């Protein structure tokens, strides 16, 4: 079940990102990122109320260890997003994006060390294939150039982003699995709701202490921002649910197909044309995904 759930989460993430990109014409980069939490949290709360109050389902039991885990995951995700945006600003979209995709290998390493859920040896080969394929596709075939620029600030910020997203993935899985007394979907919803509320509070406190106008601007843009909240909620539920069912390494590796989904959408809806290298890179990603999914 985790495979279709992950694919759905990746699709919703692409839709959310495209809507956020549109918001950059009316909001700052920071405010456009805040939209994800500010509009996602109320929707998550409504979903939780409907699930646990309206339908009368049992609320998962929350052990004490859940709170520091979810707090660390929330901060990791926020810092990762800021690092990625900083990478784009410093130098280059492609450099930041490619190096942030180190997340796949970092997740696999952290899962093996921290959660005791390592990939099988052949699974590591698949994870490397996915990382190389994604880097190849995102860099338009300029892997040699990207390697030469591995030490520049944009690349380093990309690596920080990859580490942050990896930490968030591991934390969300650990937090969701720490809950007891409820099915996997209910635990995913509870975990996500708490995560979004914590992230909204952290971001709101930051803006209140630095620039309150950002919060006002976010509220004024509620019509387009609402869709960001909807897609963010659906995507985040998918990720949290998948993390509850399967190892974070497998989920995040499979999730890299989002780049290929975006690649296909651009080809069909926008008439974009691509090179043989693009198709070979896509095939490399898919081969790696198959190896991790089947043998990892």
Describe this structure in words.
Helix 1 crosses helix 13, helix 2 packs across helix 10 and helix 4 packs antiparallel against helix 6. The chain is 82% helix and 0% strand. The longest helix has 27 residues. The chain has 14 helices and no strands. The chain starts with a helix and ends with a helix.
In brief:
The chain is mainly α and 296 residues long.
Helix and strand layout, with pairings?
Blueprint: H1 2-23, H2 29-54, H3 66-90, H4 93-100, H5 103-115, H6 121-138, H7 143-148, H8 153-178, H9 184-210, H10 213-220, H11 222-245, H12 248-255, H13 258-270, H14 276-295
Helix pairs in contact: 1-2, 1-11, 1-12, 1-13, 2-9, 2-10, 2-11, 3-4, 3-8, 3-9, 4-6, 4-8, 5-8, 5-12, 6-14, 8-9, 8-11, 9-11
Structural class computed from helices and strand pairing: mainly alpha
Q: What distance lies between the first and last C-alpha atoms, to the nearest angstrom?
A: 16 Å
Q: What low-confidence regions span 5 or more consecutive residues with pLDDT below 50?
A: none
Beta strand count: 0
Keyword list:
296 residues; mainly alpha; 14 helices
